[in-house]
Fold:
Amino acid sequence: MPITRRGALTGLALLPVALYGSPLVRAAGPTLPKVDIVSFEPALTESLLGLGVAPRAVVNAGFYREFVAQPEMPDDVLDLGPSIEPNLEYLQRLAPGLIIGTSWQLEGTLLRRIAPLRTFDIYTTNAEPYRNAGQVMLDLGALVDRRDEAQALLEQTDRLLADLRAKLTSISDRPVYIARLNPDGRHLLLFGAKGMYQAVLERLGLRNAYQGRTNAWGGSPAVGIEALLEHPEASLLYYTNPREAVAAQRRLDISPIWRALPMVREGRAQALPRFYPSGGLLTAQRLALSITEQLLAMEADHA
Amino acid sequence: MPDHTSRLRRQPAWLALGLLFIALALSVHQGHSLLAHASWTNAFGPVAPGDLPALLVRYSYLPRLVISLLVGAALALAGVIFQQVLRNPIAEPTTLGVASGAHLALAACAIYAPSLLDGGQESVALAGAGLGMLAVLGLAWSRRLSPVALILSGLIINLYCGTLSTLLVLANHEVLSNLFIWQSGSLNQNSWQDVYHLAPRLAVAALLAALLARPLALLGLNDAAAGSLGMSPNRMRLVALAVAVALSASTIASVGVIGFLGLAAPALARLAGARSLRQRLIWAPLFGALLLLLADQIVQGLAALLGGEMPTGIFTALLGAPLLLVLLTRLHETRANPPTQRAAVHVTPPKRTAWILLALLALAVFLALTWGRGPDGWYFSGGAEFDALLPWRAPRVAAAFAAGILLALAGTLMQRMTGNPMASPEMLGVSSGAALGGILALLVVPGFNPLVLLLAATFGALLALLAIVALSWRSAFAPDRMLLTGVALGTLLNAFAAVFMVSGDSRVLLMLSWMTGSTYRIDASQAVVISALAVLFLLVTPLCNRWLAIMPLGAERARALGISLSGSRLVLLLLTAVMTAAATLVVGPLSFVGLIAPHMARLLGAQRPIAQLIISALLGGTLLVLADWLGRNLVFPWQIPAGMFATFVGGPYFMWLLARKR
Structure:
């Protein structure tokens, strides 16, 4: 589904106002002051960068640059290797002042021999990632002595989501599916309970059409595209892995079921940019903006 | 009269009718839940765009029904051809390296040349499948493509391709999530395009098979008879194999890997009374079509109960693994006499070899503890820096060393016991059993608890051992039979690993890292335990000296010397299983050290059991210490798991071993 010109215009109009003062539009660069912290988790890296400081080293820097991307990470942040097996000897030589990560990354490990550890969890059993992400931002702000910035970011995000919610009231009765399409053109993954997409949808006053089983960060098992027929009245926002987008679209374009999906036929399906689905508060901002932008573009096309 | 009734009872048609009836009943039931009877006609006529139930029936339910028939028939036809040409009852796409070759090719393309896949997966899958098949044939060539050699070659190619694919997944998991689904074979459809794609291919293959039926039947007899056809038997075989590989690759590219149909359908046809090749060429595809239809309807029925759909390929693999075990017991042992151990290449006295190896080992340990790679390149650590790094390096070095010893000892026992230089603990399936236990624990128990994993893996290894004992008891632990149970257990392992991967579980990477044999998570206490086990078994295994000396001479000789074969084999089997389980927990289910070390020990002149045990233990330990050290440092700051690194070295060694002329 191509992004319509009108859709793009609506979105572009929305962006600068909403993001005024946000770290997302601030120019990044090597000028960012460093803190003596190593981050194991992209969501925490994102939040630190959002607060205007850069960690000394992160786990799997390539992953952050490709899948989280914003706020931009300075080039001189060191890479510790794979997220499941960061290079411990390297870490020991760096001798950082603090290692931060999620509980499952840090608890029960021998990392405490290298540096003090602190865990920050956004995706927990309380299934409120948005609220947790806000709290994590405040805690990180306290940690790097940027309390005011953290508080400001939190308030800004709350305000942004409230503003967007107001814009969406006219279409809030329509449930929304959020999906990642597989390139086979047959399967997709739906985002639901416990994940950031669902949390943002709720904040925006929208209802997630997918109410099924999800894993710890809100992803469903792979399902066939006909699963979207459970709520034929819903809108669909979807993304594909950029490298596989061509194959996926080619398969979908010739699928009678895809073309017959009410959301596709009636122009209620829109492509989303790809986001890191387990991100922090800034990811939530971008999700909210993107979702609103696409839903309003759809609405505008129908008007 | 009795002749007549038995002929009637053995008619494949009755069984086919029965299957058809059940499959149709389930299909109608399934379709009925989609659509009220009244609107069935709507689904076949012009469908209104808003008539969703009719659309679903027309473009999802019906094509899925037809594709399951087509895929089932295609795989069964490919199976019959493979089995006839290779004279091997368990030849089929998944046992011949065809499926794993296709998988590796697709994974590599998805990462390095995604644009190749934009036009569809078929050509890429075909290239990979063809290469996999060629590799298997090449490896088994020198053993005249004997059934056991072929299946072992298939196993090795599957392991090697699987390891390479896993390495790609570990480094690029975001990109390859689609492959998990593909690997587990899903028949879900949302258009008729796969049907349109596959149907003509199946028709052409069926036509070619019909033309080839007579020559192929003669090939089954002997080459001289086939020579009278005026075409070289080998060329005929090649054409037939090409047809089967192409058909498998097309199927695999459309719906993914559906294992075991190529085994099950021909076996069923034979059971139902289809004796001649011509009969099997007709009935096996029919049974294949019906079986897959039935399996897929059951999967869809189960989806309602389980709240999510299991990919059909996983379901057939789960059903197929036990079937494979049954078929294995029918595999003829082709060797007339047991292989004798070859004369040593070197004549160095074992004692001097042992000293040299000890020196090498010391050097390896020294390097592994003191040299590492940092952002500025290699560096040596001494003094305080050494003390600081030791807590990280020592457990990994010790664990790798101990695991190497255990695998080498287990391998020596196996090779002595079976008289087969190709035997290794990985092939026995005990390592697969251990890994299977670990995966099931991950599926059931939340979190990632090393202790739970350890218990589950030990339990899995013991269960695998019991299965091996139960299945090999009647054949008095005949060497080849035992080796091949490993194939079935390995397949089961892969099926469960696939269940885990498609479940979307966030711990999938942890599981992959564990399965590829990483020493990363070994702590000091685990290292102490595994080292203690290594020492214990170093002391225990030489006690089996007499058995180990006599067994390779062959069953008759051993009996003549008054050795109870079943009893001694049982003890050796138990030792092997415990050692393999312990080592698997450290370096994962595949490493090939258990294969290489004993073999190299013999090449170095260690002929007597105790000498072979000690020298192969030294070699095994050194190999894994080096593999771990290089794996930790070569791709800094990333790491290659020790087990996987050893596989890269061990795989080619094994292939060379297998391909060498006997």
